[in-house]
Amino acid sequence: MLFNSYLFIFLFLPTILIGFYVFSHKGHHQVALLWLIAASFFFYAWWNPSYLILLIGSVLGNYGLGKLINRKIYAKFSLILGITVNLALLGYYKYANFFVDNINFLFNNNYHLETIFLPLAISFFTFQQIAYLIDTYRGETKHYQFLHYCLFVTFFPQLIAGPIVLHKEMLPQFENRQFYHFHMENLAIGLTIFFVGLFKKVLLADGIAVYASPVFDAAEQGTALTFLEAWGGALAYTMQLYFDFSGYSDMAVGLARMFGIILPMNFYSPYKAHNIIEFWRRWHMTLSRFLRDYVYIQLGGNHHGHIRRYMNLLFTMFLGGLWHGAGWTFVLWGILHGFYLIVNHSWQRMIKLSYWLRPIAILVTFLAVVIGWVLFRAESLQGAIVMYQGMINIDLIVLPDYYFSILGSFGVLLVQIGIQFGEVPLFKTGEWIGLACLFFIAWGMPNIYQLMHTTTPVLQTYTQMPIQPRWLQWQPTRRWAIIMGIIAALAILNLTHVSEFLYFQF
Predict the structure, then answer these.
(1) Is 324 within the bounds of a domain?
(2) Under a CB-based contact definition with an 8 Å cutoff, are residues 301 and 312 in contact?
(3) What is the DSSP string of 84-107?
(4) Quick one: pLDDT band at residue 463, thresholds 50, 70, 90?
(5) How far is CA 373 from the centre of its chain?
(6) Mind telling me the catalytic residues?
(7) Whole-model pTM above 0.85?
(8) Higher pLDDT among residues 258 and 401, named by residue
(9) Which string of DSSP letters, residue by residue, matches 218-277?
(10) What pLDDT score was predicted for residue 402?
(11) Are 197 and 145 contained in the same domain?
């Protein structure tokens, strides 16, 4: 079941909301918790009921180990066991086929392993529970009720694709008695953020996806791409992924807020970042936080000299790339961003960026990210190479042939300098106009958290949030109700084709 489906919006969500608050209003708080947990299990089982056993087993096992660690019963052994089992399950389901395929390639073997289908959300609930075990071992948690812990792991708004939440963010909210009281303000805020996210997914991300996919598909088939086709496909995917993940993040935050729960911020206008360090503070922020706190810092962080720091960065980003998928394209994408971060840190040690150079820095950062997204999106290294060949082939710039007559003598001049006119099958003028509109939204408009900052829409994982003028700030007024009604109607009316969120595959 997808957030962007009629079934979820008009049946599942209203039923769960009404049931939760009816039980809560009657004082049956434990029943209300069970209702929400059962709904989350049902939501997860919708894709593949057999993997529900894995999720339940993971919750029971990690809760039991956390309890032992909390009581100082074989605490270190329990921690090592918990991390090992969690990573072993993740490794088996996500990387076993990848590992066997590479062994066969390197040693010319023919080992065969049946295709293992990746259980939905295993990367997310595995990392979430590893963080819980580590924090418990550090003495940073207390003993929580099983139902609260179960909801912490399975809460359906953030179960499938994050954010990766921490116990200290969620469990105190579940224990708060205000959790069981209905507030109209929470519903209004939640619906606003949810429908903005739905609009991003349905109209913006899915709208540009139909232009990105043919270019990457052609590259996979070995079709030579022109300069503009290759860049058009790369930029289209760059915007597709941006609005797809931004839309999902908003919808998750909005859904949780309808139940009175505030999730941590997971996405904050990352294409406005003026360097790669800043980009990773804004993109998938809770994953970046996990990798920083539970991998990079544990490796020594920046406390053992520059060389050790750079090796730690490279290894952390290698793991970040591998986390996204079992493929060499993801591994190389992670390593590439590791080198980006090394260059960024080295540059910052030598030169302080002037404020007037910030727009140039934003553009350079964005282009570096686009180059990385080609690896991220390509289905194979060969497909990525074909894309890169097109992107650097400035000798093959082809404009639609009807431009020649429109441009007149200027068209003749363009021909003289090597620009060709002819058929452009993959990325035409209309696509570039649509792409320009998406760039304007991503770079020129405030995000939903800026517009709603007075309502505390998210737990702050990013502090440098510029305040918007009062007339732009969201208020529960008729004017905003009309605006959001229009946005919601446009999104719902365009739900003719339901597509998965891109981060579901991770």
Answers:
(1) no
(2) yes
(3) HHHHHHHHHHHHHHHHHHHHHHHH
(4) low
(5) 13
(6) 324
(7) yes
(8) 258
(9) HHHTT----HHHHHHHHHHHHHHHHHHHHHHHHHHHHHHHHTT--PBP----GGG-SSHH
(10) 66
(11) no
Domain limits for position 114: 6-181
138/193 same-domain check: no
Number of separate domains in the chain? 2
Give the DSSP letter of residue 463. -
In-domain check, residue 302? no
Q: Are residues 197 and 166 in the same domain?
A: no
Q: Which residues pair with 398 in a beta bridge?
A: 420
- Could you check whether the bond before residue 163 is cis, i.e. omega within 30 degrees of 0? yes
- Tens digits of residue pLDDT in 348-400: 777 776 777 888 999 999 999 999 999 999 999 999 999 999 999 887 777 77
Q: Which of 138, 161, 181 is the last residue of a domain?
A: 181
The residue type found at 1 is M
Q: Count the alpha carbons within 13 Å of 113 in the hemisphere toward its beta carbon.
A: 17
Closest CA to 366 of 430, 278, 437, 461: 278
Q: What is the pLDDT of residue 392?
A: 92
Distances from the Cα of 280 to the Cαs of 172, 180, 207, 270, 341, in angstroms?
A: 27, 35, 26, 8, 9
Tell me which of 166, 181, 196 is where a domain ends.
Answer: 181
Q: Please indicate, yes or no, whether residues 107 and 191 belong to a single structural domain of this protein.
A: no
Residue 211 belongs to a domain: yes
CA angle 158–160–164, rounded 5-degree value: 50
* 162 half-sphere exposure, CB direction, 13 A CA radius: 31
The dihedral of CA 298, 302, 305, 307: what is its sign?
Answer: positive
In 3-state terms the chain splits into helix, strand, coil percentages (rounded to 5) of 70, 0, 25
CB 270 within 8 A of CB 447: no
Tokens of 6: 């009629």
- Considering the domain architecture, whether residues 131 and 196 belong to the same structural domain is answered as no
Whether the predicted pLDDT of 27 surpasses 70:
yes
In this structure, are 163 and 214 located in the same domain? no
295/101: higher pLDDT: 295
Q: Distances from the Cα of 166 to the Cαs of 137, 171, 178, 437, in angstroms?
A: 14, 8, 20, 36
Domain-located, residue 304: no
Q: Measured in Å, how far apart are the chain's first and last C-alpha atoms?
A: 17
Q: Does 115 lie in the same domain as 229?
A: no
Which has the closest alpha carbon to 499: 146, 238, 133, 247?
A: 247
CA separation for the pair 407, 403 (Å, rounded): 6
As to burial, measured by CB atoms within 10 angstroms (0-12 exposed, 13-18 middle, 19+ buried), residue 212 is buried
Same domain for 227 and 371?
A: yes
Per residue in 391-449, pLDDT (tens digit) is 998 877 777 776 777 777 777 777 777 777 777 767 777 788 999 999 999 999 999 99
Neighbours of 89 (CB within 10 A): 17
List, in order, residues 6 or more apart from 43 with CB less than 8 Å away.
Answer: 1, 12, 156, 159
